[in-house]
Amino acid sequence: MRIDLHTHSTASDGTDTPSQLVRKAAAAGLDVVALTDHDTTRGHAEAVAALPEGLTLVTGAELSCRVDGISMHMLAYLFDPEEPALLAERELVRDDRVPRAKGMVAKLNALGVPVTWEQVARIAGDGSVGRPHVATALVELGVVPTVGDAFTADWLADGGRAFVEKHETDPFDALRLIKAAGGVAVFAHPAAAKRGRTVPEATIADLAAAGLDGVEVDHMDHDADARARLRGLAKELGLLVTGSSDYHGSRKTCLLGEYTTDPEVYGEITRRAFGAFPVPGAGGA
What we know:
8 strands
C-alpha cells in the first residue's frame, strides 16, 4: 500500500480542488490519501464525492498551534468535524487569517512592495487565506522567484519584516480537543528549521505524555540527520512515525506520494480513531 497522510487543496492553500486532488492521488498510484487543509474541513465533501474507486480518503486538518512563542502544526486525523469545541477553535483560527493577511499586506506596502489585498484575496479564492497566498503575490510581482523564497527573514518567515502573528492554538489544548473529537494527533514536520524556530525535544516529550500519537518524520523539509534523530526520539517516546508529501499542487515542488507512511502505522491510526472512519472510493464523478 502507498499512503500519503498530508495534502492540501484549494480549501486552504493548495492549487488543486479537492476533486482534482483525489483524482491525481489515484493517478499517482496512491492507495490512501489524507486531505489535511489548514484549520478547515470544507474540502472533505467534494473529495468524498469525487473519490475514485480503489483510493481511500482519510479526513483530517492541519491545525495552527504555538507553544513558547514557536509556531507548529498539528495534523488531526479522523475526528468528528462537527464536535462543537474543536469546530469553534478551528473557526477562531481561520477567522483571524484575514486580518493577519491584511496586516502582512500593509507591512509589505510600507516596505515598498505594491501588493494589494485584492490580489491576495484573488489568489486565495475560497481557501483559508495564509502566508502562501501572500507569497504567491510576491512571486507574481517579481519580488521573489518562488514561494519558498518568500519565507525568509526579509519577508514572511516567523519574525520577518512582513510577518504578522495570528491566533494559534496551544498544542496541549489542541491535543485535548482532537482527542475529545475522536481523532488522532501527529506533529507535522517538527524539524523543519528553514521555516523558523523548531519545538525542542523536551516539549515533544511533554506532548507525548499529554497524548500526542505520532511525529511526521519523512518530509521534504527534513534532511537525513533530522529524520534519523526524529526516528530515535519517536522510538524513545513510543510515538508513531509517519511520512507524507505535504502536497500543495503547483505551490510547492513536492509530488503526491513523494514520502509515504508504513501500512502498519496507518492501521494503528485507524484503530485509535473513533470520530470518523476512512472513506473507500466508489468511483466518484
